[in-house]
Amino acid sequence: MTTRIRITRGRSGNYDTLTFEVLSNKGAHMGTITWQGDSKFAWYGLTIATDCDLVNSHKLLSMYKLACYIKDRNENGKPIEIMGIMGGVECFYRNGMFIDITDNGKQVYDVMELGSKALQCRVVAANELMAFRIIDGMVKRKELKDVSYTIKEVGERLQFSPTNLTY
């Protein structure tokens, strides 16, 4: 099981907070897993929540399955344990998309049709050759039209550091 998450740490009154924002494979918000913490008890008060409506009940079902999976396997409910149970892959929001920490050191490329300045999509690749291979795969899967494309680097190479989950 692999679960994409974005991690945020904060402070609310006298307590620290740690939130795992659970993301779908396409980067949509599915729900949250939150802890409260203080210097005496470290992380505690594990809460799992989701926002959904009757039209988008797949979010509710997905978060329910994840909550049951975690409940059946956890011993102490600490963030590091939960991250391991759900196969958490930390994601960062850069260049208008959620990018996995496993893409550290890669480059984001804008993909445009040759002769056009209209952005078709963005890809994350180690170099230009790999970016064009990704584009070729997208064309074969009919995710992009079968035309010639050009790419342009966006920003600097990705440099991520994992979030510290200890209190």
Question: From the structure provided, what is the oligomeric state, counting identical versus distinct chains?
Answer: single chain
From the spread of the alpha carbons, the general shape counts as elongated
Main sheet record:
6 strands, mixed
Structural class: alpha+beta
Low-confidence stretches: none
How many helices does DSSP assign? 3
User: How many distinct folded domains?
Assistant: 2
Distance between the first and last residues' Cα: 26 Å
Kindly summarize this structure in a few lines.
The protein has helices at residues 57-73, 79-85, 128-140, and strands at 3-12, 15-23, 29-38, 42-49, 88-94, 97-100, 107-113, 119-125, 149-154. With 167 residues, the chain is of the alpha+beta class.
Word description of this protein:
With about 170 residues, this protein is α+β, with helices and mostly antiparallel strands. It has two domains: about 5-95, no CATH class; about 105-155. It is built from three helices and nine strands, in the order ββββααββββαβ. The protein has helices at about 55-75, 80-85, 130-140, and strands spanning about 5-10, 15-25, 30-40, 40-50, 90-95, 95-100, 105-115, 120-125, 150-155. Strand 3 and strand 4 (about 40-50) form a beta hairpin.
